């Protein structure tokens, strides 16, 4: 915020100074409110599993349990621990994304490699409960940071699976446009999202249905990570959805970061 004020003070024309100044303060207040909300949200998200965990520790300490009951309690404790680990890991990812420079535009990654990686993750998560497909229209390469791109794509595919009932389908497709841009399209036949929620999906901790998100291991941070990653790559996230029918999330990359895959060098004639 300080920079805006300085530029106002050294501007040679006096007019409009007060207006810009008050805009600056409003902006600062907004940032401060967002920061406070964020800290409150993180604390709340951490407190819930901790409360549950301490309850279980008390149970284990004070109640005579059968071996079966004891195992059950330990399984529940493990679930809460995994949830906290997921939260901390997503928070770290966000902090890293915010604190590091944009990924260079000259490291080329095979789209095919990204696809195969998410395919593995998706199969593990779905456990055969969904119809999955992973297709590429033409071999291509993408310039950017591999770990970030994988994390964005994995988040979208994980959501598609988590918000699609058993027996539904999830399709991941790479498409190169005639203007040279390219996109990953993740389409599911799941529960869908009401229109009014769509603009807010990438806000940190925003969830349409908090209990479903938490039950399926969601942190509420996935789509804010996706949005950061795609913005850092100069692209955009497009969301279309119909409640009860399914959703489509597209990661669209500018032509600058997309090129056809280099053909394998021809084998030397013998
Ligand atoms: P979460 O960890 O809760 O999934 P995200 O940031 O990844 O957090 O997503 C935010 C919210 O958007 C989710 O809580 C869910 O309500 C909704 N959502 C995301 N992806 C989908 C999808 N493929 N189908 C239906 N709802 C979705």
UniProtKB/TrEMBL annotation:
Keyword Iron: no
Function: Member of the two-component regulatory system PhoR/PhoB involved in the phosphate regulon genes expression. PhoR may function as a membrane-associated protein kinase that phosphorylates PhoB in response to environmental signals.
GO MF terms held by the record: ATP binding; phosphoprotein phosphatase activity; phosphorelay sensor kinase activity
Catalytic activity: ATP + protein L-histidine = ADP + protein N-phospho-L-histidine
Class of this enzyme: transferase
Residue span, Histidine kinase domain: 41-257
Keyword vocabulary terms for this entry: ATP-binding, Cell membrane, Kinase, Membrane, Nucleotide-binding, Phosphate transport, Phosphoprotein, Transferase, Transmembrane, Transmembrane helix, Transport, Two-component regulatory system
Gene Ontology CC terms: plasma membrane
Residues of the full protein shown: 176 to 445 of 452
EC numbers: 2.7.13.3
Species of provenance: Caldimonas brevitalea
Name the record gives this protein: Phosphate regulon sensor protein PhoR
Main location: membrane
Subcellular localization: Cell membrane
GO biological process, one term: cellular response to phosphate starvation
């Amino acid at each position: 915020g300080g920079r805006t004020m300085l530029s106002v003070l050294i501007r040679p024309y006096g007019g409009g100074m007060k207006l810009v100044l008050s805009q600056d303060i409003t902006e600062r207040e907004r940032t401060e409110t967002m920061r406070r909300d964020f800290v409150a949200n993180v604390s709340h998200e951490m407190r819930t599993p901790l409360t549950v965990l301490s309850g279980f520790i008390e149970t284990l300490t004070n109640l005579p349990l059968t071996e079966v009951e004891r195992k059950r309690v330990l399984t529940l404790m493990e679930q809460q621990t995994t949830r906290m680990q997921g939260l901390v890991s997503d928070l770290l990812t966000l902090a890293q994304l915010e604190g590091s420079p944009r990924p260079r535009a000259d490291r080329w990654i095979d789209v095919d490699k990204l696809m195969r990686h998410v395919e593995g993750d998706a199969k593990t998560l779905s456990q055969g409960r969904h119809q999955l497909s992973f297709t590429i229209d033409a071999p291509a390469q993408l310039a950017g940071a591999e770990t970030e791109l994988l994390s964005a794509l994995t988040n979208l595919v994980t959501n598609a699976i988590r918000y699609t009932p058993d027996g539904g389908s999830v399709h991941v497709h790479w498409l190169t446009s005639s203007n040279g841009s390219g996109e990953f399209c993740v389409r599911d036949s799941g529960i869908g999202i009401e229109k009014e929620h769509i603009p807010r999906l990438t806000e940190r901790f925003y969830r349409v249905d908090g209990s479903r998100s938490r039950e399926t291991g969601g942190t509420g941070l996935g789509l804010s990570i996706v949005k950061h990653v795609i913005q850092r790559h100069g692209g955009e996230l497009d969301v279309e959805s119909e409640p009860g029918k399914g959703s489509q999330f597209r990661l669209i990359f500018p032509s600058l970061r997309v090129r056809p895959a280099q053909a394998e060098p021809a084998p030397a004639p013998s």
